[in-house]
Design brief:
binds adenosine-5'-diphosphate; cytoplasm; 55% helix; ATP binding; Rossmann fold; single chain; 2 domains; 9 helices
Length: 201
Amino acid sequence: MGFILGVTGGIGSGKSAATQWFESQGITVVDADIVAREVVELGQPALNAIQKAFGDWVISNDGSLNRRALREHIFQFPEARHTLEQITHPAIRQSIVKQLQQAQSPYVILVSPLLFETNQHELVQHTLLIDADEQTQLDRASQRDGQSEEQIRKIIAAQMSRSEKQKRANDIILNDGLLEHLHAQLKPLHLEYLQKAEHCF
Ligand code: ADP
């Protein structure tokens, strides 16, 4: 595998806005959130394993994962999260690695809100944090998802703190202005990454 860049940031920080720009420059983006949903789709081995571990109640009438029931179960029995993750994490990692290997672009991006929280950072050579203050995160995420500020605050609280992520990231972009400002900050980094990618081979 060539040069792999990990992109992370809290909810609403602008990870997708950033990776959309990288895609417009021809860079392949593997999205850990999308992979996490794919591995529990109908017919996937991880879905069968979840059904075996928890029981038939985790499956909806249409055969898909009943996310709401599972969420409520984990809320009641927090240790169930561990059981679930023991099934899903290896499947997610395997699929991410496969997609990273198949990528054809000069370098490739793995975008994940939990890059540092999970072992996913081991898969990348360099990290970029898309950073924003909490109020900006709240405003953007509530507008995008229609979730209440309280729900988004809970998600932020469950993620690694902003300062810890700032300490760990190799590069940081503060996404506190217009999209044009974000893109203008991404451009010189993209040129740097292209250089790094050339030296990878
Ligand atoms: P994340 O993927 O980190 O959760 P998104 O990239 O989806 O965040 O951004 C959250 C919302 O805010 C989206 O609707 C996005 O279009 C918007 N957004 C992100 N960055 C900016 C910006 N600089 N200016 C205006 N809107 C933005």
